[in-house]
Design goal:
globular; 15% strand; binds nicotinamide-adenine-dinucleotide; 12 strands; alpha/beta; 5-stranded parallel sheet
């Protein structure tokens, strides 16, 4: 009987190994400890960029076999159970790691969350601590990518590039007043949030010869050296022809642009948001655009983007009426959370995420883990 059981056990472990090898695409060295990571919200760029880096990690390490599996599902309290048997999960900007999801992850045996982004506004830090999950992020990948995209949005809105390009492609080479823009040179440009991305943006703005006004809870010496002047929020609203939102989404910054701000704004201001959708009360934005108080708007983020972004909705009706009114407004230029999307930034996101996993694998936990969110 023992002989039969041993044989059965051997063949079962062979089958399990075969399944694991099939999933990871590489034979598993039995001397290696397997570290399984489930990557949520996987789109094509994620798998394409992680797979070669995981392969070279495994070639270098003789003690650990990193197995990264991928799901298109977003993390929430219902999909958290997919992580059963995984030691780590890899998340992105629209995954919801709230207390409920974290408690399910913890029950599934997950010990580590690696964010492949900088922002962690959808992670309940307190719950992660309570359930003993370490959380590491990519604090900076390319501030240039985001700052440059913010400028691209500004110039697209200001110089009506999408509309102009569509007209020219339809062989309409006329000019009319709907295409009229303004010089940024000499205008007052406000940057709200002068951290890593905000500072790069400030430097670009000074290149335009604009008057740089800044607002932040911490003043940056670099921004002052560039000639930037720190002022109150109200002065930004009153004086600026262009306002960039460059701060994180926090309870103190949620809906920082709301209906009570509209009467304070300089008429015709262009608003650019590449940070987080929740900074703007979108209904107030829509009414500001309709009244002409807001002259134009460039958005890479939207407060309810989780239902739509990173998915193809071209064959289905968009039922979010606020989103529909933004999409239908020719003063709005919108991209779907792609400001970070440059090859340099992706390279850094993937390599820092692997580094974070590597640090965890060498025993670092909680606040001792580099790039921890607490
Ligand atoms: P950062 O932490 O370096 O800078 C944020 C700045 O905001 C800091 O200077 C901070 O003092 C300031 N700030 C915080 N609370 C404030 C408040 N209440 N009022 C005014 N200022 C306040 O962050 P970063 O790397 O510059 O990134 C900024 C944001 O950009 C991130 O939080 C993230 O949400 C967003 N982001 C978006 C993309 C994208 O692809 N669209 C990519 C990366 C980052």
């Amino acid at each position: 009987v023992i002989k039969i059981l041993t044989l059965r056990l051997r063949s079962t472990s062979k089958i399990v190994r075969a399944i694991v090898e099939q999933k990871s695409g590489a034979p598993v060295d039995s001397k290696k400890k397997v570290l399984k990571v489930l990557c949520y919200d996987t789109t094509s760029w994620v798998k394409e960029n992680f797979e070669p880096k995981v392969k070279s990690f495994n070639e270098k390490r003789d003690d650990i076999e990193l197995q990264m599996n991928y799901t298109q599902d977003r993390l929430n309290d219902k999909t958290a159970r997919f992580a059963a048997g995984y030691e780590a999960v890899c998340l992105f900007v629209n995954d919801t790691a709230d207390a409920e999801s974290i408690s399910v992850l913890s029950m599934c045996g997950v010990k580590l969350i690696v964010m492949r982004c900088a922002g962690f506004d959808r992670v309940d830090v307190k719950a992660a601590k309570t359930f003993g999950l370490s959380v590491a992020r990519v604090p900076a990948y390319s501030p240039y990518a985001v700052a440059e995209h913010a400028i691209a949005l500004l110039m697209s809105v200001n110089r009506r590039i999408p509309a102009a390009s569509t007209r020219v492609k339809m062989s309409n080479f006329t000019l009319e007043s709907s295409l009229l823009g303004m010089d940024i040179h000499g205008k007052s440009v406000g940057v709200m949030g002068t951290g890593k991305i905000g500072q790069i943006l400030c430097r670009i703005i000074t290149g335009f010869g604009a008057n740089l006004l800044a607002y932040d809870v911490f003043e940056s010496a670099e921004v002052k050296d560039m000639g930037g002047k720190y002022v109150s929020k109200e002065e930004i609203y009153k004086n600026c022809d262009v306002i960039f939102l460059m701060m994180p989404l926090l309870p103190s910054t949620t809906h920082i642009i709301n209906s009570s701000v509209l009467p304070l704004l300089k008429k015709g201001v262009i608003l650019i948001n590449t940070s987080r959708g929740g900074l703007v009360d979108t209904s107030a934005l829509v009414s500001g655009l309709q009244s002409g108080v807001i002259g134009g708007c460039g958005l890479d983020v939207y407060e309810n983007e989780g239902d739509y972004f990173f998915q193809d909705w071209s064959g289905k009706p968009v039922v979010d009426n606020t989103l529909v009114s933004l999409l239908g407004n020719n003063r709005v230029v919108m991209t779907a959370h792609q400001a970070f999307f440059t090859s340099e930034a992706i390279d850094k996101i993937v390599s820092t995420t692997i580094e974070n996993i590597d640090n965890y694998s060498s025993g670092l936990r909680g606040g001792n883990l580099p790039n921890s969110i607490w």
